[in-house]
Amino acid sequence: FWRARKMVRSDVYAPLLLLIALLLAVPWYAEATTGVERLVSGLRLGLGVIFGSHTLRYDGKRHGLQVIGAGFPRTGTKSIESALSQQGHRIYDLRSVIENNHQNRWLKAAREWKQQNNTTELEALVLEMEKLGYTATLDTPCYLMAKPLSELRPDAKVLLSVRDNAEVWFRSFQFIVQLLDGIWFCRPWTWIIFGDLRVFLETIYSISMENYVFPPELNYPTHLARPLPWYEYPVKHVIQDYRDLWISHYNSYHDEFIKNSPPDKLLVFNVKQGWEPWVEFFDMDPNDPLLQHDFPYVNDRKTLQVVQTIREVVGVGFPIIVLLLVMLLAWLVLKGLRMINGMTSTLFVQKKMKQS
Question: Hey, how many other C-beta atoms are within 10 angstroms of the C-beta on 145?
C-alpha cells in the first residue's frame, strides 16, 4: 500500500483505490454461476431502467404506430422489445413515459376512456408519440390501453404476449414485484428515489382494472429488516396474498381481448415460439438475416437475480459510494482550480514580460 501510495499522487490515490475496490466487489459478490455475460447483462438492464433510452437502434425509417403490445409485464416483453428494435422499431413503454414526462397525460387518458368512453386525450398522446418517432408500444401502461389504441390505429398489428399459463406468469410477476419492493420501500433507495412512479402505477392500475387492489406498502419492522442504519431489505412480501386476484385478472383479460380482436390483426405469442409466427404476421422476408439468429432472450430470471445482487451490494456499500463520489467531485474541483490558477499565472507572467 505504501509503495503504491508513492507511485500515485496523494490527491488521486484514495478515490482510485476505492473505485477499484468497488469494481472488484460487484463481480466477486455475484454468484459464480451467473457468469460474466450475465453480470454484464444485469448491469446493462439495471442501468437501462434508470438511464436508458430507446433510440440506440431506431433507424428512423418507420413512421406511425404500427405495433401495439397487449401483453402483461413478465410475458417476454423485453425479448419482444429487442426483436422489434432489430426490425427498426422505436419502442414506447414505461421508461418512455418517464423520459417524456407523460405520467399525468396517461392518467387523464385512462380516466377519460374508462369513465366517459372518450379517447380525445389518448389520441393527442398517440400523435405526440408518433411525432417523437415511436412506432411500437409495450408493457405498462400501454397494454392497459391496448384496446382503445387498436381502435385509434386499426391498421396497427396487435401483439398479445403470453406465458405457458397464468400460474407460470404469476411466479415471474411475483419475483419482479419482490425485486421492486427492495427499491420502493427500503433504505437507501427511499432516500434517493422518490415514490412518484409507484403512485403512478397504483393509480393507472386502479383506473384501468376492475376490482383492482394495489398491495399495501411495506414498513419497518413488520416487513423489513434493518441490519445497518442505511440498509434495509424485505423479509415479508405481500404480493402472494393477492395471487388469486392477479391470476383472475390475467385470465379474464386474455379471454376478453382475444374474443374482441380481429384475428388477422392479432398474434397471441409466446417467446418460446421463436421467429416462426413473426414471419407471416409481420410480413418478414424469409431470407431476412435476423432469422439466422435465435429469437432474443432478454431479462430472464437469472439476469434479474444479478440485478438484485448488485442492488444489495450498492445498498450495503452506500456510505462508501457517497464518500467516493464526494472525493471524486472534490478532486475534480481542485484539479480544475489548479488548472485555472496555472493558466492565470501563465497569462500574468506573459503580460508582465510584454510590459517589460
Answer: 25
Q: What is this structure's pTM?
A: 0.75
Nearest to 144 by CA among 235, 220, 83, 72: 72
For residues 149 and 67, the answer to whether their CB atoms sit within 8 Å is no
Rounded CA separation 125/316 (Å): 41
Cα–Cα distance, 267 to 281 (Å, whole number): 7
pLDDT at res. 85: 93
Please tell me the distance from the alpha carbon of residue 246 to that of residue 324, in angstroms, as a whole number. 43
Residue with cell 430470471: 301
User: What letter represents residue 116's amino acid?
Assistant: Q
Residue 131 CB partners (closer than 8 Å, separation 6+): none
Task: Locate all alpha helices (DSSP H) within the chain, ordered by sequence.
Answer: 2-7, 13-29, 35-51, 77-86, 94-99, 103-116, 120-131, 146-152, 166-184, 189-192, 196-208, 243-259, 276-281, 301-316, 318-355
> In this structure, what C-alpha cell is assigned to residue 317?
456499500
The CA distance from 197 to 199, in Å, is 5
Show Cβ contacts of residue 55 under 8 Å, excluding neighbours closer than 6 positions: 90
> DSSP character for 268?
E
Residue in the block written with cell 431476412: 288
Least confident span in 94-103, 144-153, 293-302: 293-302
Within 10 Å of residue 347's Cβ, how many Cβ atoms?
10
pLDDT per residue as tens digits for the range 207-223: 988 777 766 777 888 88
Q: Counting Cβ atoms within 10 Å, is residue 129 exposed (0-12), middle (13-18) or buried (19+)?
A: buried
- CA dist 120 and 81 (Å) reads 27
Which amino acid, residue 69? Answer: G
Q: Which three cell numbers stand for residue 48?
A: 437501462
Closest CA to 125 of 147, 100, 106, 142: 106
Evaluate if residue 91 carries a pLDDT over 90: yes
Distance CA 249, CA 296 (A): 28
